[in-house]
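To whoever is on call:

I kicked off a structure prediction for a single chain this morning and the downstream step that reads the tokens threw a length-mismatch warning. I double-checked the sequence; it's 173 residues and nothing unusual in it as far as I can see. Pasting both halves so you can look.
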Amino acid sequence: MKKEDKSLIIDQIAETLKGYSCFYLAETAGLDAEATSELRRACFNDDIKLVVVKNTLLHKALETLDFDFSELYPSLKGSTSLLCSNVGNAPAKLLKKMQKKDQPLPRLKAAYVEESIYVGENQLEALCAIKSKNELIAEVVALLQSPAKTVVSALQSGANTIHGVLETLANKE
């Protein structure tokens, strides 16, 4: 491959990484054609971009970015698939769902999520537990609404009590 072609591919990989808030490095080399097609289809349905990259080109693309990705460099061995997403836990859930008991692939190598780096297959459970931005917003809204609902409920309860007392007094006379 010519040097100009390599630099063009490095720039494309860097631009792809800039377009997403998180990315995962996965091992997919041992998958058969059917499993690979299933993985690509699942990625498309979950709005995850799947790209198979050369490790050296990905390494150089990561070096051009503003963040220090040096913790990821040891994971760049063997074949590497790049899963890019704007939802932090979506690729982790997909990888976990795709793994079967008889076939441990696709296997997580490393991930960059929310400006944190996770290295190793043992991090998959932690990555699945990460909440997405929309889930966190929903929790904050629910927490903010809870006290207001309690106050409104107490006021309505008090109003019903006062109304009952006034009605009883009016009927008494």
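Update from on-call: the warning came from a stale cache, not from the record. Cleared it. Sanity check on the structure: The chain has six helices and five strands.
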